[in-house]
């Protein structure tokens, strides 16, 4: 019997002869790449020349107190032809020496242009000829379920590609400086230590995120900072070397508001920021803010918690008189505060 032939046996007792039906040969592995595979392969080949491995040295001390150099590293990607590289702040923060390696084996020393712990983003620069810049996309156009590809150096395994989907959009993530990063992309493309700072890429090979974190012990919960946020931060770092933020000088925490106060003053939220301490000589002290006051709005915009206050205190408020709405016991007050520029973190 020919191996390409099989028989269909009738289920009834009908006595017609069996019919021979040809079965086609199974496709070989070389014919298997489908649209998904082709998309991952194409995007990876397009972006890989721009992805770099970053090795850093940081000053530290041994247990005995002796000076000792600590080694670390992560990933990054070139985003301009003149050698500017985006990565995470926690990869290069306070580095004493930075070295960048490309997939072709070329290595270059790098120096930090600026880093911002509050968004966990940094820009470094190398002096290298004929380097390829990664094309940048638009993270606002992402959709849940869209293909997401991560490239980086997990655990030192250079130029590793993982793929998954965009699991969710608009997440908020706490940076290592304590501030909240908004509009974070959640993906199930596998990330591990060493992936930090590498690109999250769409199927057309455009960078839409900067890989930044995972949740230890969880599976498939990985996060990337949207490239639109990264573009803004990179622009400010290139211009000023830092991100300017406003500061009023209070220690505070989020606290619920009594329902009677919410109804009486027709507030838009049921919580505010209670002041636990006021820094002497700060803008808050000069404005008359006191311990126990509850901040509920800044320039008419609702403040439901500490993160809202951080988000509203942008560089646009530095040196500009702003209206701070507070509740003092049962009284609603409008205080005028002039925020200062926050000290570098």
Q: What percent of residues are in strands? A: 35-45%
Overall average residue pLDDT: 88
Low-confidence stretches: 1-16
Which structural class best describes the helix and strand composition? mainly beta
Question: How many alpha or pi helices?
Answer: 6
The main β sheet shows up as: 6 strands, antiparallel, barrel
Q: In what order do the strands lie side by side in the largest sheet?
A: 3-4-5-8-7-6
Helix proportion range: 10-25%
Oligomer: single chain
Radius of gyration: 28 Å
Shape estimate: globular
Would you count the extended β strands for me?
A: 22
- SSE arrangement, N to C: EEHEEEHEEEEEEEEEHEEHEHEEHEEE
Q: What is the rounded distance between the termini? A: 79 Å
Protein model, in words:
The chain is mainly β and 345 residues long. It is built from six helices and 22 strands. The strands form five sheets. It has a six-stranded antiparallel β-barrel. The radius of gyration is 28 Å and the shape is globular.
Brief rundown of the structure:
The protein is mainly beta and 345 residues long.
What key attributes describe this structure?
345 residues; globular; 22 strands; 6 helices; six-stranded antiparallel β-barrel; six-stranded antiparallel barrel; mainly beta
Task: Walk me through the topology.
Layout lengths: L4 E4 L10 E4 L12 H13 L3 E11 L5 E12 L5 E4 L1 H4 L2 E7 L5 E10 L4 E6 L20 E6 L7 E15 L5 E8 L11 E3 L5 E8 L7 E5 H14 L5 E2 L2 E7 L2 H6 L6 E8 L4 H5 L6 E5 L2 E2 L3 H7 L9 E7 L2 E7 L2 E2 L4
